[in-house]
């Protein structure tokens, strides 16, 4: 399976949070990263996290336990 984007969440007028599966150094993982589009810069920010594919289920289960008001 190649790279695949799962969704984008608009954070503000210039930034989206992007969830995607990608390859880095020969290993696949899930990236949750900010994509910025401004007059001075368009591209990925350094803000984000990469979850190795083999840990995704454990990560997802932990996130599903989060309670919001």
What keywords describe this structure?
mainly beta; Transcriptional Co-activator pc4, Chain A; 13% helix; flat; 69 residues; 4-stranded antiparallel beta sheet; 1 helix
Q: What is the beta-strand fraction?
A: over 45%
Mean pLDDT: 93
- Calculate the terminal CA-CA distance, rounded to whole Å: 37 Å
Number of helices: 1
Domain tally: 1
> What ranges have pLDDT less than 50 throughout 5 or more consecutive residues?
none
CATH superfamily: Transcriptional Coactivator Pc4, Chain A
> What's the CATH first level?
Mainly Beta
Morphology call: flat
Helix content range: 10-25%
Taking all Cα atoms into account, the compactness measure Rg is 14 Å
The CATH architecture can be named as Roll
Task: Kindly state the number of beta strands.
Answer: 4
* Lateral strand order in the biggest sheet: 1-2-3-4
CATH domain fold name: Transcriptional Co-activator pc4, Chain A
Largest beta-sheet details? 4 strands, antiparallel
One letter per element, helices H and strands E, the order comes to: EEEEH
Structural class: mainly beta
